[in-house]
Amino acid sequence: MAERYHIPVLLEECLEHLEIEPNGTYVDLTMGGGGHTREILRQLGDDGRLFSLDQDSDAEKNAPEDERFCFVASNFRFVRGAMRLRGVEQVDGILADLGVSSHHFDAKHRGFSFRGDAPLDMRMNTRAKLTAADIVNTYSNEALAKIFAEYGELDTTWKIANCIERARTTSPITTTSGLVDAVRPCTPPKDEAKFLTKLFQALRIEVNGEMEALKMALEQSLKLLKPGGRLVVISYHSLEDRIVKNFMRSGNSEGKIEKDFFGRSTSPLKVITRKAIVPTAKEVERNPRSRSAKLRVAEKIELIS
C-alpha cells in the first residue's frame, strides 16, 4: 500500500543528514506512507531501533514487520511521553516530514482537496471531533478571518468570511464543493487554484492544531535527543518553515536567542543547514508535490555551564 501512494521527499538528503549509526535509536515523527521509515530501517543494524509515530489510522497499515521497529499511534506532539512509556529516554536522531501525505489528497472522502466533492472533514486523526465543516459553520466572522490571514496568508479575509456567513445562513456548508461555491464571489479568477489551496490549508491547520503541535513536537524532540543527535525537518509552507528555522537557531519557536553573562549564545542546537535544502529539478519532475519542500537540520550540543 505504501509503495503505491507514497513517494518520500528529499529521501537521500534526509538519510545523509541523520548520520545514522547502525545500532542507534531513531524516531520518525510522521510515518505516513512509510517511505522514510523503510529507508531508515535499511540502514540500521541488528541492534538498531526505530519508532514511527502517526495519529492517522491509515498509517498503521503501512507499518513494516520488523523486530527493530515499533509503530506508535500518537500525535507527534506527545513524542517524549510516548518514548518514555516504551523505556526510551534519549535517541540519536529525529526526522519529521510535515507534509500532508499524497494519499490524503488522493483519498477524496477525507476532504483535504478542493478538487471534486467530498465531506468537509480534513481530520488527520479521524477519532478527533472537530471537522472543517464545524469551523466554517460555527466560527464567527472574526475568527474565520483570523484563520485565513494567519494560516492561509490570504488577503481580504473579511470578504471571504462574509461570503461563508452568507452561504451558511441559507444552508450548512458540509462539502468541499459547497465551500468552493460559497467563496466563489471572492475567488480571484486568474488565481483560483492558488487561492483555494491557501483557503483549504488554513482550515486544515486549524482542524488539526498543526502549529501548536509542531511547536510542542520540536520542544519535546530537543529534550529527547542525545547531545550530538540530529533533528531533521521537512516543511512545506512559510508558517512551518519560520517556526522550524527559529527553533533550530535559538531553541524556541519565537527565535529569541538567549545569551549568558559573557554574551555567548545559550542555544542548545547547532544549525547544520545555513540555507534550507530544496528538491532538485529532477525530484520535482518526478514528484511535483515536493516542489515547496524545505529541509533544515540541527544538531543538539552539550551546553557547558
Helix and strand topology:
Elements: H1 2-5, H2 11-18, E1 25-28, H3 35-43, E2 49-54, H4 57-60, E3 69-73, H5 79-85, E4 91-97, H6 102-106, H7 132-138, H8 141-150, H9 157-170, H10 176-182, H11 192-208, H12 210-224, E5 225-235, H13 238-250, E6 269-271, H14 281-286, E7 294-300
Helix pairs in contact: 8-9, 8-11, 12-13
Structural notes for this entry:
- The protein has helices spanning 2-5, 11-18, 35-43, 57-60, 79-85, 102-106, 132-138, 141-150, 157-170, 176-182, 192-208, 210-224, 238-250, 281-286; strands at residues 25-28, 49-54, 69-73, 91-97, 225-235, 269-271, 294-300.
- It has 305 residues and is an alpha/beta fold.
- The chain folds into two domains: 2-102 and 210-300, 3-Layer(aba) Sandwich (Rossmann fold); 108-208, Putative methyltransferase TM0872, insert domain (DNA polymerase, domain 1).
- A seven-stranded mixed sheet has the order 3-2-1-4-5-7-6, with helices on both faces.
- The radius of gyration is 20 Å and the shape is globular.
Poorly predicted ranges (pLDDT <50, ≥5 residues)? 1-5
CATH topology category name of the largest domain: Rossmann fold
Order of helices and strands: HHEHEHEHEHHHHHHHEHEHE
Fourth-tier CATH superfamily name of the largest domain: Vaccinia Virus protein VP39
* Structural class computed from helices and strand pairing: alpha/beta
Q: Please give the CATH architecture of the largest domain.
A: 3-Layer(aba) Sandwich
What fraction strand?
A: 5-15%
What is the top-level CATH class of the largest domain?
Answer: Alpha Beta
Helical content class = 40-55%
Number of helical regions: 14
Overall average residue pLDDT? 93
Distance between the termini: 50 Å
Tell me the domain tally.
2
Largest β sheet strand count, sense and barrel closure: 7 strands, mixed
Describe the strand arrangement of the main beta sheet, using strand numbers. Answer: 3-2-1-4-5-7-6
Over all CA atoms, what is the radius of gyration?
20 Å
Number of strands: 7
